[in-house]
Amino acid sequence: MPPRAVGAARVALGLIVLLGGINGFVRIVPVPEPLHPFIQLLVDSGYIHAVKVVEIAAAVLLLLDRRRPLALALLWPVVVNIALFHLLLDPRAGINAVILLGLLGALTWHDRHAFAPLLAEERAGSRARAPMGGDAARGERASPA
């Protein structure tokens, strides 16, 4: 992706997620009433506040262009749950979920090198392992207990 496209996607995703995160604490954008029972359960339990804090933290990282892979990794579970909610339970704002998935997917693809170690298969014998309780590089032996 061209650098300007990456920047635009980063800022767009950051602003959308920041607005959604802040909207969990202070109503800026009206939310359709009545809330879906699943969302009402998340609100009543307070769980939604933890999710909104993660959204805000990831959005700030994106907007400051700091630790972008970390921000993307934090957003994947949130966005997948948003998409599944709209796909399976409440399709009213399904297009928003598609936009979020598209932006997140494009940015993740652009930073795929950062995620390569997570997806690489470790081959037998490709990495020497130290015995339990000792460090083979320093010549220590593993204790039997």
Features:
145 residues, mainly alpha
Question: What is the chain-wise order of helices and strands?
Answer: HHHHHH
Proportion of residues in β-strands = under 5%
Helix share bin: 55-70%
**Mean pLDDT across residues:** 87
The biggest sheet amounts to: none
Number of helices: 6
Radius of gyration: 21 Å
Query: Quick one: how many beta strands?
Result: 0
Question: SS-based structural class?
Answer: mainly alpha
* End-to-end C-alpha gap: 54 Å
* Overall 3D form: globular
Provide the low-confidence segments as ranges. Answer: none
Task: Describe the protein's architecture and organization.
The chain is mostly helical and 145 residues long. Helix content is 64%, strand content 0%. The protein has six helices and no strands. It has helices at 3-23, 37-45, 47-63, 68-88, 94-110, 112-119. Helix 1 (3-23) packs antiparallel against helix 3 (47-63) and helix 1 packs across helix 5. The longest helix is centred in the N-terminal third of the chain and has 21 residues, at 3-23. The N and C termini lie far apart (54 Å). The mean pLDDT is 87.
